Every structure is written in structure tokens, then in C-alpha cells.
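Example record

One chain of 466 residues, shown exactly as stored in the release files.
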Amino acid sequence: MKINQCEHQLFVDDALIEYSNNLQRRYWSPERAGVVLEPDKPWEQRCLILYGSVIKDPVTGNFKMWYSSFCGKRNLGRDILYAESTDGFHWHKPNLGLVKFKDSLNNNIVIPAEHPYHPDGASVIYDTVDKKKSRLYKMVSCRTDNKGKNHIWANFSADGIRWQGWNGPILFGYGDRNTLMFDPSLEKPYVIFTRPPDMMKNFGKRIVVRLDSKDFIRWTQSQTILKPDLDDPLDLQFYCLVAFKYHSMYLGFLQRLHSEEDRLDIELVSSRDSITWHRSDLRTAFMESNFEKSIDSRWIGLASNPPIVINNYLLFFYEARNACHGLSGSFLLPSGLIGVATMPEDGFVSLSSGFVPAEIVTKSFVCPGGVLKLRVNAVNHLGHTETCGIIAGGTRLEILTENHSPIPGYSLKECKTITGNFRTGVAVEWKKKKELNALKGQKIRLRFNLIHSDLYSFWFDECSKT
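Predicted C-alpha cells for this chain:
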């Protein structure tokens, strides 16, 4: 097992674990923080749709959002709109002066639905690799030709507002839900997760495939990466996948369509290479379809980008709708809005213990040195046993050799017990040891001892120091 310097190591899958006992993997959901955008402009109709993206500009620190709304003509498509914020919670819809609405340019429309082939599902990245300023922002969107066929277009912008590159599709026949991932560590850093051509004809339901590219123009398709399996309900379909690099692994939000009830919820999935994806046997929802109680939502979807980190918390921007499929009439639209939810960093999954001492032993890896830190809640609850009475929580850790022998100075007995809720991180200390620089370059294992604790992640802070 390779530990890459200071990357956080999560327990979403078993890749790190050699042995475990008396533990349960628990899946956590974000908490609703509130509605951030509502359809309060005449051109937004009743419904805001986050088939779009939210980015924190690395230069200004401001937030930028690309979202859409029905243009008012049901079969024409959607306007692509733009909003901005300084903190992620309070948003402004600027008058961009680009597109006329009822003879006025005072609106935040970036690309109108009347644009050739009716754009849908704009997914945007900020490119830190491309040296051309005119291609700093990149977008893919779906457009439907005169024969009703969906194609994927690529567009470029220097500021995320004025777009160019309307030369025709880069991919033919792909579905209308596309999400864009950017990962400079990959040989082909641009990745699209989408629906394959002739999907309903060949598979009978919605599934997900992966495309990647070195230049954003020429793309290669993978095999199917996600489709419902024997443990899923027969009516389940996979609407789309939002995927992103998160420290040492890839995480994904799989949007699931429960066809019979026309509900959309979100399932957390994970991968080590962005190609082979792992799903929990429990198939629990990361966000339920009724997450937004204010409109009795039936559809929940997430922005196409990674959650944004603010003060040790993750911000998740979501859309919520009360209906969508099966609506009749050209002007019958669902209600929809955009909200934000929060979760502590690394808070997706924990390995959780009760009053019986639990154990985790990791696979061996080369110690990078530095200070070992944990995100852990070592007081997740109090337990009662007939023999011991009330038991409080506690987490300890020892460092083993590759052959499972405790290393002097780093044993379990010498470890200072961690008791408390440290969701932002806590350093592991032993009686006479704190830094692990003396072990740098050696193959080690970690052995955790947990009582009433939720363990989320570990990492080696300041690991580049000697």
C-alpha cells in the first residue's frame, strides 16, 4: 500500500485495511444549511436547475455558479444562467448584458435556450494546466439536433461568462446528463461521465460510461462503469455520476432514478482509479430525495464539481425539485431551487465501535514521517454493560513493523488516549514520542484501538519536514 505524503486516508472502502474486529462502517449524510437561490426573476420561471457547476475561483476566492432554468417554451430547452458569491451562502445574480429578455439586457443569462441546438446541462471546470487564458474555463453541454439526437459540445472562456468554440459537437449520440471531472494527475486529465449512445435500445435503462481526453477535443470511451446490478430494484436507473479526486481516492455521487415513483436520490460510491467503482452493499442514500423539505422535494441532484472546502467543512450545492418527468403541457413546470448542505471534512464514512474494544490494523506502507493526525469522534456515545457500568469513549494507536511487532516508543500502552470529538483533526501522541521522523522510510502498519469512537481518516501532517 502506498501512502502519498500528506493525503488524507479515508475508510470508504477496504483498500487500507488488513484486519478489523468489532467495527461497523457507517455512512453519513450532509446537513441542510439553507436555500441559496430561488426563481425570483421573470426569465427563471418556477424552477432552478443545477445541471451545472459551482467553482471557487482560485485567484479571487469568489464563488461562481452556472445553473439553468426552463426558458418558458417547454420543448425548446433551458437558459444557462450565472451567479456569484463571496462566501457560498449569499448569492448575487449580476446583470451581464449579453442576452435579451423581453427587449432588456438586464439579466444573468449566459447562453440562451434559443442558441443553436438548445444547450442543456452545462458542466464547467477551471483549468489549472492549459496555458491559454482563453481556455481557462471549459464547458461541456448537451445539444439536440434537428433529428432529436443528443450530442456533446465543448466551449471555452477566459472569464466563465463569455464563451466561444461553437464549431459543432465533439461527441455524437451521447446522453443529456454529462458531468465533467478535471484531474491533472491523470494521463488524460479531462473526464466526462455520461450516458452512451443508443442506451435505451441496448440496455433498456440509464447507465453511466466514462470518456477521457488529453486535449478536450479527442475523446476515448471506456466500457460501462456503472449500471444497476442484481441487488438493485428492477425499476432503478442511474441518472448520472458526479465524480472528483478527494485526497488519496476518487469519490462519486451516483444519482439514482427510482422510476416507478419518479424520485431521484444520491448514493456515495468510490474508486481508486476513477474507472472501477465500488458501491456499498447497503446501498444507503447519501442524500434522500426528500432532502429539501421546504418544497417536499422528489428530485435531488448535486453540482458537477467537488464539494468546496471552507473552514474544515465541505459545502455541497444541490438542486431540489418537487416533480419533473411526466408533466403534461408546454407551460407546466415543476418547482425547483438551489441549496447548500455542509459536512465536516472527511466526514463521508466512519469505522465505528461500541463499548467492546475494536481493532483495525492497516496494510503495510512506507512511513512518510511527520505528525500522525486523525479525524475522530471518540465520544460518539456512552455505553452501559452489566459488568462494567458506564463506559466512555477513547481511541489509541500503536505503530507496528511490517511483521506486526510493536515499535518501542510507539506501543499501545505508551499512546495517550484520545477522548473527545476531533472532527477537524487531532495529533496522536505517545509518552515520549510525537513526530514519526525517526521512522521515515521504514515499512510500518498502524493498529487502532477504538471504544465508542467514529474514525474517519488519518494523515501525516508536515510530512515533508525532516
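Notes: Residues 9-27+349-461 form a domain with the Jelly Rolls fold (CATH 2.60.120).
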